[in-house]
């Protein structure tokens, strides 16, 4: 039998006259990495969080299995009158980021910010297809109607993922 010469990306070998042949799985994983998934919403209201005050879903991005660096960004706009204490949470599986901003009402006479950007980030490896979910709540209750503009969720698929505790 003639020797079989395998060059990347082919892998395999010969044993007892049987030749095995395959494709390097590292190459397959690398080919599946580097994809970008994104979604957006131009405008919407921030839920008041109901009796629990917990953030409620305002956006979700479907993602195939794989490792991701996920970011979300939105601009929070205060209510017409009063203030808004807005909490948002970006969740992917068990991994999440949470942030809070306080914005003043649009007609407020106080020297305060009426619009603030809110960035959130998370990394997660999905063993099966899943979602990046952005949830928000205006903790000032039903009288406060804040809103969001220019919401974006971007997930960048990677060939590997490391998420280490830094403390």
Q: Overview of this structure, please?
A:
The chain has 167 residues and is mainly beta. The chain folds into 2 domains: 1-32, no CATH class; 34-158, Jelly Rolls (Sandwich). The chain is 5% helix and 57% strand. It is built from 1 helix and 10 strands; from the N terminus they run E-E-H-E-E-E-E-E-E-E-E. The strands form 3 sheets. A 4-stranded antiparallel sheet has the order 3-10-5-8, with no helix packed on it. A hairpin with a 2-residue loop joins strand 1 (10-15) and strand 2 (18-23). The longest helix is centred in the N-terminal third of the chain and has 8 residues, at 25-32. The radius of gyration is 23 Å and the shape is rod-shaped.
Condensed summary:
This protein has 167 residues and is mainly beta.
Keywords:
mainly beta, 2 domains, Jelly Rolls, 1 helix, 167 residues
Topology (SSEs and partners):
Layout: E1 10-15, E2 18-23, H1 25-32, E3 36-45, E4 56-63, E5 66-77, E6 83-92, E7 95-104, E8 115-126, E9 130-138, E10 147-158
């Amino acid at each position: 039998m003639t020797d079989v010469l395998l060059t990347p990306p082919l892998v395999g070998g010969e044993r007892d006259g049987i030749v095995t042949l395959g494709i390097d799985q590292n190459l397959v994983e690398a080919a599946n990495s580097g994809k970008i998934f994104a979604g957006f919403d131009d405008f919407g209201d921030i839920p008041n969080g109901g009796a629990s005050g917990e953030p409620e879903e305002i956006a979700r991005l479907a993602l195939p299995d794989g490792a991701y660096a996920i970011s979300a960004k939105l601009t929070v706009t205060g209510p017409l009158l009063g203030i808004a204490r807005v909490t948002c949470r970006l969740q992917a599986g068990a991994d999440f980021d949470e942030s809070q901003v306080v914005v003043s009402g649009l007609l407020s006479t106080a020297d305060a910010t009426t619009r603030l950007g809110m960035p959130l980030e998370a990394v997660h490896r999905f063993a099966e297809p899943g979602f990046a979910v952005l949830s928000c709540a205006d903790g000032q209750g039903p009288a406060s109607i804040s809103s969001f503009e220019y919401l974006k969720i971007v997930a960048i698929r990677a060939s590997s993922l490391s998420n280490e505790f830094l403390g």
